[in-house]
Prior knowledge:
Blueprint: H1 9-18, H2 23-30, H3 43-49, H4 53-74, H5 80-83, H6 86-94, H7 98-120
Helix pairs in contact: 1-7, 2-4, 4-7, 6-7
Amino acid sequence: MKILKKENWWIWLLLTLFSSGSSTLVLGALLDVYRKNAWYRKWYYWVLGIPFIFPLLIMIFIFYLEIMCKTAAKLEVSGKEIYLSPYTWIICVIIPIIGWIVAIIMSIYIQIDILYRLYIGNGEKYIN
């Protein structure tokens, strides 16, 4: 857990760049954002999605988005009322072009602000 120290923010920057943002899933595990009875813990959802590639991709996207938003909220990224609401993301997906651009900008904002919050030391309070 020493990786959450303030001086190790650059490691998370490199991990984010080289893993295309999936290091947020590891950061979420370190911050304990995974719930025990959540939908992504149920194996049959994933098994039912395997034969159909499009629903499986949607499930992976929603899982990543949920963990990224919960990680950002745990690190006290500003605006959590907006990005923790599922309705915001649903509206962004439903509205073509402009909504999609807003969704992309929101996810980039969350990724960058997670790194910034690690830089200023918000992750240090979760070190055991």
